[in-house]
Amino acid sequence: xxxxxxxxxxxxxxxxxxxxxxxxxxxxxxxxxxxxxxxxxxxxxxxxxxxxxxxxxxxxxxxxxxxxxxxxxxxxxxxxxxxxxxxxxxxxxxxxxxxxxxxxxxxxxxxxxxxxxxxxxxxxxxxxxxxxxxxxxxxxxxxxxxxxxxxxxxxxxxxxxxxxxxxxxxxxxxxxxxxxxxxxxxxxxxxxxxxxxxxxxxxxxxxxxxxxxxxxxxxxxxxxxxxxxxxxxxxxxxxxxxxxxxxxxxxxxxxxxxxxxxxxxxxxxxxxxxxxxxxxxxxxxxxxxxxxxxxxxxxxxxxxxxxxxxxxxx
Amino acid sequence: xxxxxxxxxxxxxxxxxxxxxxxxxxxxxxxxxxxxxxxxxxxxxxxxxxxxxxxxxxxxxxxxxxxxxxxxxxxxxxxxxxxxxxxxxxxxxxxxxxxxxxxxxxxxxxxxxxxxxxxxxxxxxxxxxxxxxxxxxxxxxxxxxxxxxxxxxxxxxxxxxxxxxxxxxxxxxxxxxxxxxxxxxxxxxxxxxxxxxxxxxxxxxxxxxxxxxxxxxxxxxxxxxxxxxxxxxxxxxxxxxxxxxxxxxxxxxxxxxxxxxxxxxxxxxxxxxxxxxxxxxxxxxxxxxxxxxxxxxxxxxxxxxxxxxxxxxxxxxxxxxxxxxxxxxxxxxxxxxxxxxxxxxxxxxxxxxxxxxxxxxxxxxxxxxxxxxxxxxxxxxxxxxxxxxxxxxxxxxxxxxxxxxxxxxxxxxxxxxxxxxxxxxxxxxxxxxxxxxxxxxxxxxxxxxxxxxxxxxxxxxxxxxxxxxxxxxxxxxxxxxxxxxxxxxxxxxxxxxxxxxxxxxxxxxxxxxxxxxxxxxxxxxxxxxxxxxxxxxxxxxxxxxxxxx
Lengths: 314, 549
Known about the structure:
The complex is a heterodimer.
Chain A: H1 2-29, H2 34-39, H3 48-57, H4 64-76, H5 90-125, H6 129-143, H7 147-161, H8 174-203, H9 206-213, H10 218-256, H11 261-270, H12 274-302
Helix pairs in contact in A: 1-12, 5-6, 5-8, 5-10, 5-12, 6-8, 7-8, 7-10, 8-10, 9-10, 10-11, 10-12, 11-12
Chain B: E1 12-22, E2 27-38, E3 43-47, H1 54-61, E4 69-78, E5 81-82, H2 88-94, E6 99-102, H3 116-126, H4 135-145, H5 151-156, H6 164-176, E7 182-186, H7 194-211, E8 214-219, H8 222-228, E9 231-236, E10 239-245, H9 246-251, H10 256-264, E11 289-301, E12 309-321, E13 325-329, H11 336-343, E14 351-356, E15 359-360, H12 366-372, E16 376-379, H13 393-403, H14 409-422, H15 439-451, E17 457-461, H16 469-486, E18 489-494, H17 497-503, E19 506-511, E20 514-520, H18 521-526, H19 531-538, H20 543-548
Parallel strand pairs in B: 3-8, 3-9, 6-7, 7-8, 13-18, 13-19, 16-17, 17-18
Antiparallel strand pairs in B: 1-2, 1-4, 4-5, 9-10, 11-12, 11-14, 14-15, 19-20
Helix pairs in contact in B: 3-4, 3-6, 6-7, 13-14, 13-15, 14-15, 15-16
C-alpha cells in the first residue's frame, strides 16, 4: 500500500515539474514579453535605452536556463514573483481571484455529477424504450454545444427574455446560476455517457441475475448492486474531466464577466504576463494532480478488491 | 403422463412451452413445445449441448429471460398456478422464496463490492424473513449449514477473498435461505474443479433430502446428470429428444441423439479412445524422448512487494516419448499452466532444465528462442478468445508462416488450404471470420494454426474443455488421427480426468506444484499412488452408470 502511495506521489510530482517546464519554455518562446508590451507603449514616451534598463531590472535578458532555475527556485519557496502588468505579487492576485473560481468550479462539478447520474439512472429505470432513447441522446447533444455559445444563449433566454436571472447587480448566488449551468453541461455529457454504458454493462453481469432471482425488484437491484459497480469506473473519468473543468472555467468566466482565475488568465494572456500565466499553469496542474491523486487513493477505499494485499494465484 | 391420482400437485409443470428471441429482425424460436414436470423432492436433469435451449427454459421458469426473449406459448405451473404470464412484481414474490437459483459461474455471480454477509442477508431482507439484528445470526447459521469454515469471518469477507468452491457454497446458502420448493441449478459446477464439483453436488443432494426441495439440474454433462437425477429430460435444438427415469434412459435410450450423447460422454467410456501406446505402430524408435523436464522449479515474487516468493512448481520431472500423449492433470493452482508456460519458453524457470527435441531451453535467447517456437505450438482452451476476431480464417492460419520464413504467396495458400482440409474445415471457411464459426470449428482453426508450422510437439492447454461433449469427441478423434498420421507429440493439460484417461499414454498428476503421481494411464488409474489421485478418480462423474451397466 505504501509502495502504491509513493508511486502515485512520484508521478504527481513529475507531472507538476513537466507542466512547469513545458509552460516555461512555451512562454519564453513567445515573441516579445510583458515588459515590452507595457513599456513600449508610445504614451509613456520611454526611449529604447530606458526600456533596456527596465528589462535589465526585471532580469528579462538573462540566459533562459538561469531564468528557469531562478523561477523554479522561487516557486519551490512559494514565491510566484511579480506581475509586470499590475505591479503586485502574483500570489496576491491569485488569492483575490481564486475563491470565485473555486466556488464556480465546485458547484459546476456537483451539478454535472447530478445531471449525469440523473440522466443515467432515469434512462435505466424508464420502462419506455422511446423515453430511454430520448434521454440517452441528451449527452451527445450536450457534448456538441460550445461553452461560449451556451453561455450567451442562457443569458439571452433567462436574463433578457424571461428576466428570471438579473444581469445588473445580481446577488452573490444569483450571479452564479447561469455560469454554473454553462460549466456543468459539457462535463455532465461525457460523464453521463460513461455511466450509461457502465450501467448497461453491469446489468448483464451474472450477479445481477442472482439478485433478481432472490426476488429483488429492478429498483433494488439498480441502487444496491448496479450503482456502486457502475460508478467506480466513472470516477476515473471524473478525475480526467477535471481538466475540462479548468478550461471551461476560463471561457465561462470570460462570457459572464466573473472575476476569477479564468478572467485573470484571459487578461494575462492578452498582456503576455508570463509570471501570472506561469503561476496559473502550475496552480491548475497542482489542482489536477491533487484531484487525480484523491481519485487514485479513493479506489481502494471504495473497491474491496483493490484493498487486499494481492495474493499470488497461479 | 397425466397422473391425477398423485396426492400433491407437481412442484413444477411445464406444458408446451415455446420461447423465442428477437434477434433484431424477427422472433426466432429456440424452445419448441417443451413439456415436463417435477414432483416434490425430485431431481430432474435438463441435459443438452449449448444452444439446446436448456438454459433458456430454466430462465423462463424463474422469469429471468433476457430482454429480447419472449414466451410464445404454453404454461409454467408452479404448484398448479400458471406463472408464465405473471408481471415482474408478481414474480418477485415467488423468486427466492418459492424458486431459487444456483448459477453457473460462482466467480461472477456475487457482487464484488458487497460482503458475503450482506449478499446472503439480502434475500432475508427482501422477503421480510428477517430484519435488523436478526439477519446476522441467520446468515451465519446458513453459511455454517453449507459447510463454510469460520462462518462469522466469511460473512465479513468479500467474494474475491473466497475460492470458487466457497463462493458456490455461498450461492447455495442464498438459494436455500428461504427453503424454496424448487432450486434451479444451472450448470452449478461446470466452472469448478472435479473434487470441488463432487463436494458441491453432494451438498445440494444433502440439502435436498433435508428440506424436501425439488431440483432442476441444468447440465451439459451427462455424467453429472446420471449420478444425480431421478429423471432426465434430453433437449436438442429446443425440442425434447427423450424424457424418462434416468436408469431407463441410460440403459435403453430411445432417441439416436441420446445414444450419441452417451457414446461421446468421456465419463462413460470405460475404455481408452485409442489403443495403448505400446500396441500402436510407431513411426519412430520408442525410446526417443522428445520432452525432458528435469527438476523444474518456478518461483513468483508476490505482487504486494514484501519480497516473499511463491513457489508455483516445485521440482517437477517427467519425460515424453515421441509420438505419444502426455497429460498434465491437476486442479486450479496446481501449477499446470505454469509448467507449460515454461516448456514453451514463455518464462525462464527458477531452477531445473527443460529439453525439447535435444535442445536445452535455457540456452535459448532472443532470435534462437523465437526460431525454437516452430517446434512447439500451443492450442488454447478458449476458442473464442484465442482467435483474432478481425482476421479471416486464412490469415489466422497463415500468420505463423509469415513469422517464420519467406514462403511465396501461392505456396503459402496451398499449405493453408491443405492444413484446413486436414483438420476437417470446409473450403468456404477460409474467408470467414471467427464469429461466423461454431466453437468446434474455431478449435479446428486453432489446431490448424498450430500445425501449419509442422511442429514436433503440440501443447493442448484445456483444448477441449470449453466444448460440448459431442464436439469434444470429434476434436479428440481429430487429434488422435493427426497424431498417428504426423507422428505428433502431445502435451495435454486438463482438469478432466475422464478425457485424460481416454487419450493419454502417460500422465503426471500435480498438486500444489508437486508431482504426486506419474506413469502410464493404466498405472495411474488402476494403481493410484496417492490419496489425491484416488480422490480425483472418485470425483469423475458418471460412476453410478458405470456401476449400473
